[in-house]
Write a structure and sequence with these properties.
With 143 residues, this protein is an alpha+beta fold. Helix content is 24%, strand content 34%. It has a single domain, classed as Thiol Ester Dehydrase, Chain A, CATH 3.10.129.10.
Length: 143
C-alpha cells in the first residue's frame, strides 16, 4: 500500500471526498458492531412517531465516512486521527447518497499536524454534518 501524503506534500486547499449510498444493511451492521440499537435507527414503527417521522442512520455512521476520506485519500494511509469536532445538521436516511469531504485549512509542520474542514452532504446538496479534524499525516519518506 502506498503511504499517504506527508506534511511536506500537503497544502492549504487540498481536498478529497468519498461517496456511498447508505443501505438498510449499513445501519443494522453498525448497530450490531457498536451495540447502538436506538429505535430511531432500527424500529420503523417507533421512528414514525419521532421528530424525523421515520428511521434515520446513526450520526456516527455518517461521521465515520470522514475517517474513510482521511485514511484513504487526504492525507491517506498512515494518517493518525487526533481529534474531530462534529455538528449534526440534518438526518441521513436509508437510500441517501452521502458524500464526505475534507479540506486542508491549516498545516502545523512543527507538530506534524494538519487541521481539516470536514463535511457530509446528501444527494440533494443538504449539509448533514460539519466539523473540523486534526490529524497527524505519515512521516516524510526518507530516501
Amino acid at each position: 500500500m502506498k503511504p499517504g501524503k506527508s506534511i511536506n506534500e500537503l497544502k492549504v486547499g487540498d481536498k478529497a471526498e468519498f461517496s456511498k449510498t447508505i443501505s438498510e444493511s449499513d445501519v443494522y451492521l453498525y448497530a450490531g458492531i457498536t451495540g447502538d440499537f436506538n429505535p430511531a435507527h432500527v424500529d420503523e414503527e417507533y421512528a414514525r412517531n419521532t421528530f424525523f417521522e421515520g428511521r434515520i442512520a446513526h450520526g456516527m455512521l455518517t461521521a465515520g465516512f470522514i475517517s474513510t476520506v482521511l485514511a484513504s485519500q487526504l492525507p491517506g494511509p498512515g494518517t493518525i486521527y487526533v481529534s474531530q469536532e462534529l455538528r449534526f445538521l440534518a438526518p441521513v436516511r436509508m437510500g441517501d447518497t452521502l458524500t464526505a469531504r475534507a479540506e486542508v485549512v491549516e498545516i502545523i509542520p512543527e507538530k506534524n499536524k494538519v487541521r481539516l474542514k470536514t463535511t457530509c452532504v446528501i444527494q440533494d446538496g443538504t449539509m448533514v454534518l460539519e466539523g473540523e479534524a486534526v490529524v497527524s499525516p505519515p512521516k516524510p519518506k526518507t530516501e
